[in-house]
Here is the input.
Amino acid sequence: MGAPGSCGCRGAGTPEISHYRGAAVPPDSELHNTQVEPICRKYLNLRYRMLPYLYSAVRECALTGLPIMRSLWLHDPDDPAAVARDDEYLWGRDILVAPVFEKGATSRQLYLPRGAWHDFWTGERVEGGREITRAVDLETIPLYVRAGAILPLGPVKQYVAEKTDAPLSVTIYPGADGSFLLYEDDGETFDYRRGQWMGIQMNWDDRRRALRMHLAEGSRMLPPLRREMEIHLAGETRHAIFEGHPVEIRL
Here is the structure.
């Protein structure tokens, strides 16, 4: 599939803009604004942490044609309010992004489709099917994660191919059953077409508070032949090791 950055979504939930045409280029004085630099660093770090989620979404896009950035109606076609909403979007199936467009805004009104959602920044659970008002500031893009989502996050990196032995962080957002296929290949060649890819199928049983993992059909473990993970749920953390055999973690 190539390196994750090749998908064109280099920001944390926002598309890369490659042609500024002059008007959107910030003045030199703003490029080293001490107020803005930490915010840029925050979202660049988040982008790298979200690469496992993004790369898996790229795989889904390649197989099914489902875009990475999706209008709300794609998963809620029977929700008139979701169909009409054109100022927010889904990043993959489970992350809702509500960009802030107004200069100096202190709040953002947004719509959450039906079901429960979790504020990515605070963890607060919010019932959907309605509009809500979210307080914002210069560094806050409202992000909400669908109940039942399994969100894999990697370590902060300085570049995509940087090697690290830090464990994968997997956060489960309770309130519904869910599933996620974590996809990996070498990020450089077409060897995945010859079976050189790894898929870890994750299934969350909300009633039993159990996460089950197994190797996806047709895939194989890639080096290193074990994956260390930290599984997070509502303040609880479990350490897990996946070596290709089915495992279940109770939380």
About this structure: Residues 3-11, 15-20 have pLDDT under 50 and may be disordered. The chain is about 15% helix and 30% strand.
